[in-house]
TrEMBL record:
Organism expressing this protein natively: Streptomyces antioxidans
Name of this protein: Alpha-ketoacid dehydrogenase subunit beta
Co-factor requirement: thiamine diphosphate
Keyword Protein biosynthesis: no
Chain ranges of the Transketolase-like pyrimidine-binding domain: 6-181
Length: 326
């Protein structure tokens, strides 16, 4: 099949459809995922085509949804759970971190839990409280979980396929404000490994590392900086656990500078771990401190203030300028 241009949300829908067709043990579960097709219509049409036993509308009970998925995985199924909004995941946090993440180690490797937890996350859609969180660092901190986030439709399709195929639990963060962004998807391609970072724009003066919704902002910043003669390399991290530190190191050894960008608060965010590791690994290559750009250490604000809260082009470019000034 030739590559087809599709939105990120349609790519996820196509990936789920492919998985349902390929394996009768794959199930989709969540609030309003069936008849409604999800609040973002990401699962639109799947229940109609595969039935209510494969695409299951659940009660409004996130802990029960994940707990049921764990039980189904123990019986040989491969559940794909949707958490309707990022801030709704916390009632299920106990199930995820004390059961889903631990069962493999607790059973000395005898039990596998191939569960995917899909979470639309991040801001930029003008939503109310608990609908714009970026809690990825909370899950990346938990041993036993894989944590990933696509930035474009092609990765959305293939990374979800790989997550569903994984025998380990995967937290799959979907950048909801990028749902309508379109790019080419080749559904016959052979994807690279799930947890590898990718250079999406080469450069020589500084590395901008980002993932999920902030990759587009990083690319825009690199284009703006190029107009002033600055050569910025953009690295799409793609995975927050494990992190591809080798790819970051290779990039920093070329450029000598690193700025890490994410929507989540800077304080104890993913960028903190990256900054510490790369400072250890690349101390003699760095020409400036590793800088971080992200949200503020405060609750997510009302929608009319979110443009001030979210890291945008100006804040990223300011960090670029500060790093280049050393």
């Amino acid at each position: 099949m030739a590559a087809e241009k599709m939105s990120l949300s349609k790519a996820i829908n196509a990936s789920l459809r492919t998985a349902l067709e390929a394996d009768p043990k794959v199930l989709i579960m969540g609030e309003d995922v069936g008849k409604l097709g999800g609040v973002f219509r990401v699962t639109d049409g799947l229940q109609k085509d595969f039935g209510e036993d494969r695409v299951i509308d659940t009660p409004l009970a996130e802990s029960g949804i994940v707990g049921t998925a764990i039980g189904l995985a123990l019986r040989g199924y491969r559940p794909v759970v949707e958490i309707q909004f990022d801030g709704f995941v916390f009632p299920a946090y106990d199930q995820i971190v004390t059961q889903l993440a631990k069962m493999h180690a607790r059973s000395l490797g005898k039990v596998k839990l191939p569960v995917v937890v899909r979470i639309p996350y991040g801001g930029g859609i003008g939503a109310v409280e608990h609908h714009s969180e970026s809690p990825e660092a909370l899950f990346a901190h938990v041993a036993g979980l894989k944590v990933v986030s696509p930035a474009n439709a092609s990765d959305a399709y293939w990374m979800l396929q790989q997550a569903i195929d994984s025998d380990d639990p995967v937290i799959y963060f979907e950048p909801k404000r990028r749902y309508h962004d379109k790019s080419e998807v080749d559904t016959a391609a052979i994807p690279g490994p799930l947890h590898t970072a990718r250079v999406v724009r080469p450069g020589a003066d500084l590395t901008l590392a980002a993932y999920g919704p902030m990759v587009k902002v990083a690319l825009d910043a690199a284009s703006a900086a190029a107009e002033e003669g600055k050569s910025i390399e953009v690295l799409d991290l793609r995975s927050m656990s494990p992190i591809d530190f080798d790819a970051i190191q290779r990039s920093v050894e070329r450029t000598g500078r690193l700025v890490v960008v994410h929507e989540a608060p800077v304080f104890l965010g993913t960028g903190s771990e990256i900054a510490a590791r790369i400072t250890e690994r690349c101390f003699y290559h760095l020409q400036a401190p590793v800088l971080r750009v992200g949200g503020f250490h405060s609750p997510y604000p009302p929608s009319r203030l979110e443009d001030e809260y979210l890291p945008g082009l100006d804040r990223v470019l300011d960090a670029v300028d500060r790093a280049l000034a050393y």
